[in-house]
Write a structure and sequence with these properties.
Number of helices: 10
Structural class: alpha+beta
Largest sheet: 6 strands, mixed
Number of strands: 35
Distance between the termini: 32 Å
Amino acid sequence: MRASRGPPRFLLLQSSEERVLSCRAPVTSVAGVEDVPLVGFESAVRAWALVVWSVGLLACGAGAPCDSACEPSDEACRQSACGALPEESPRMRIACDALPPEGRCLGPRVVERCVDGQLQQRDCAMGEACVEAGGAHCEAAAACVEGTSRCSDAGALERCADGRWASAACDAGCVAEGNRGFCGAPGRTLSGMARYARRLPDASFRDWAPEAEWVSARGFLVASFQGGALVDLAVTDGSGRFTVRVAREVGAEDAVVVYAAGQGQTGLVEYAVADPGLSGAQGVPATPGSSARIWSWSRPTRALLDSPVVAIEESEGSGAAAVFEAVSAAWHGTRERYGDTGLPLVAWLGFGTTWSCGACFAPWQVTAVGRRWSAQLWLPGDSDAAWWSEAMVLHELGHWAMASHGTSPAEGGPHFLGVPTFPGQAWSEGWATWFSSDTRGSPRYYDRQGGTMFWLDLETRSPEMIAWSRPRPEDGLLQPIEENEVAAILYRLGTSTPSRQLLYESLAAPAMNLAPWARGYRKHTWRMEEGTPVDVAETLEAAPCLADFLDALMCGGFPRELMDAATEPAVAYPYPSHSPLCR
């Protein structure tokens, strides 16, 4: 979702879900897909170095069947294009009598322990990770960037896996060079730092700051090439540092390339920011151009040996680096919460390229830039420079998180900021805004469009440009509701306890992923005239809504008094916390 200019006093929004109604099913499992591994596949990596790829589209067209890209006789293609969502399940909750007395780590960021017979969870702070030595607890400096390596104090090789340092087999002995540990002597290496220029909102949130600031490029892939052959691959750490092997004799064509791409545990690239190779206004979905490429920044190895800093300027597309940081944060954050990876994702950003949806997400497949992706995110490259809005990018990634680990209501249509919309759409958009807030650790949402910056605050319910619309108890659970009111309720739920883990688990709970849903909501279709829905029609298709999610929370053990404090049933949203519908 991204706002587009509408009538005075309102911002017209176009739901990301509207664009996938004709093709909800064709999201395939990652299993069995012929992906291109980055490591050890020299021809593919060489193509990356030349940033020239052949591309094709295996996604649904607007209003077209999901197998429209397949030949009539190609049943394997049809099954792949039209397969169902992969099964995703939350981490298993455990009863107190089965929990070790010292507690346990539920992934790298959540501590679980029993206190007076009650299971309690606590989220670790940024820069901390859960460790179990000496009893489960959060420990500063224990967190790490996936894919990095080091030599421990005892001289053993350790690699970062699932956000924590873990021992790695190494008979040759760990050798430390730069910020990295190698198994055995690595030969000649180059250590450097990657950073990029980015802009934040100014102090008044009325525009982007006039001066860019330099920030560390964290979690980027870094490849060292001798001519066109891959020598080594590394990942920048939390400070943007990297160490790569280089040729013993460095030639004029040798280069170090920083990629806006991240790997999964299998070594495959699982998420990336890419230039679509298109210009001007484009419809969604669009077939990427022949010059489509993953965003990358190359420097001669010789130059880095003298001055080991890869500084990505705005003129080089540092906005794509900023988008990658948001994609990486969403990717790792959800894996930490669920123990499963999300749908392989490509985010399209071309400077000068705009999309018919503004900014949007859809779980549509595409084969491009050397990979088959299960989901796509489109971001505008116009003069508003909205790529600097981490809040907006992470909102769209909230839709990705729901598609990866839950069930979207798939209810779409035009809607306005400050104006209540239908419960399915409000739930989807509200979750996405809350996901953005939770990932950033900030209640303030902001974006820029049509030359105007706007913001809203979930904690204080104080938008700058619109009146905040609150629900009314007499209108019931399935009343139209403003999407930011949904986000504000979720924000209060999340900040009322030491951990937001139960909110994430509830999205993936069976009750939230099996139709029909307990509260009986069914999707609607409509169109807008002067800010008012017209031609409203209720369909026969069931969809989840906020009330179903609150049921899942309560049935999972969320405290009733905290639920009532967030929903305010007597004066606002009339959720009956005393009688949740549990399956």
